[in-house]
Amino acid sequence: MGTTQLESVQEPKYWHLKSVLNDALDSEFEVGEILPNERDLAARFGVARATLRQALEQLELEGRLQRRRGVGTTVAPPRMGVAVGPSANVWPGARLDTWNTVGCVEAVPPARIGGLLGIGAEETVHTIRRERVMRNQPVGAELLYVPSASVPGLSTMLSPASHAPAVLRELHALELEGEDRAVELGSASAQDAKQLDRLPGAPVLVVTTRYFVGGRVAAASVATYRADTCRLTFGDSGAVEVTHHQPDTRQAS
Amino acid sequence: MGTTQLESVQEPKYWHLKSVLNDALDSEFEVGEILPNERDLAARFGVARATLRQALEQLELEGRLQRRRGVGTTVAPPRMGVAVGPSANVWPGARLDTWNTVGCVEAVPPARIGGLLGIGAEETVHTIRRERVMRNQPVGAELLYVPSASVPGLSTMLSPASHAPAVLRELHALELEGEDRAVELGSASAQDAKQLDRLPGAPVLVVTTRYFVGGRVAAASVATYRADTCRLTFGDSGAVEVTHHQPDTRQAS
Description:
six-stranded antiparallel sheet, Chorismate lyase, homodimer, 10 strands
């Protein structure tokens, strides 16, 4: 235990380049500006292409750069603060919900979703696909799973257009006791990628939420957020005004 | 809007391979088992090495595989549920806190940390480096920033060993009004990587927390969690027993 321990580790070569590039991005480039090509950049900083590429990949992971199809590598704007579960005990689709429904089916879900919901292998689930847009950009793609048994009063004569609204209406009639959430790293499926305007396999933050009624899971959702452009915010401090545009706090030390 | 929309996107070639591999991992391999080498795997599934490698990278991103130095690629155990801020309004270092202090310094912080804390450019901050271990594995590395102005009663005669405990003690004397959190994707610094037993640049989930006292930020922390082994859980449902070992819910659709 001592004071020197905070900065005692040798950093690899591309790491130094990364911080040099970071400074250059701050001082010489505007948000949205296209970076020079890799050969020119490598020559300017006197490094091998492989080293440069490692540094660029890190900066992309940290949200400083964006690779855009047909455009090149551009300087990324600060990540958007996306509020996840800003209020406790509110059903999806309730007032002020920022998600839009794009489709709905009723079917037996994949086994892992059945496990998440705690239902039998043959039980059907209403699956509502939703999307979330902020500042005209897609930020989230979600599948909301509502077991058919959770909404037994649902009419069986529903048009595709009335299916999702009817499921949500039945859900809202239930008293929501609470929810829990988990966040982890994942990769975008082809369908998610299309909704998020990314390539399949792009890194996403996966938020799994379980909604509890009567001590059991009445619904669950799996939402994927673009990891390049989003910071997920969890403001549980009712007394405090939470700003979503903090300064850059991506990475410490 | 319609029922076919949920599954209408063409998936790339390696994506199919990924799901085939996923099934093979379930049926033929144990957790911790070392995978055959890439050449043998590519031959078995009749794909090019590049396609195989893409699929393996996806499975690593999704936490199904782990690449371990000097060992090879192994089947990953299910991700650990790591509770982030399980109770509201609790100071770091309070009872039941699962973090261990590894060092402490007082210095002017990086500009972005000063911005996060809302302090002047010349103001000093106590920086406490902490680590979190679960099941004998390092899961998180944290820098906790406490502006010197937040703990004015602190003695100036502190040994390295008594520095962090004294800062935390002073902090606990303040009435915590609330906190907010943001989660985003980042890459491990060399120091974080060492604490987390990863290579620098490895993907990490970065959790930034601000602690509020008297309407302003009295302390802040930036914690990095291993993205390969951790699911961050946010259980705000006091009424509900939250299990941290859900079935696999990494990715929907």
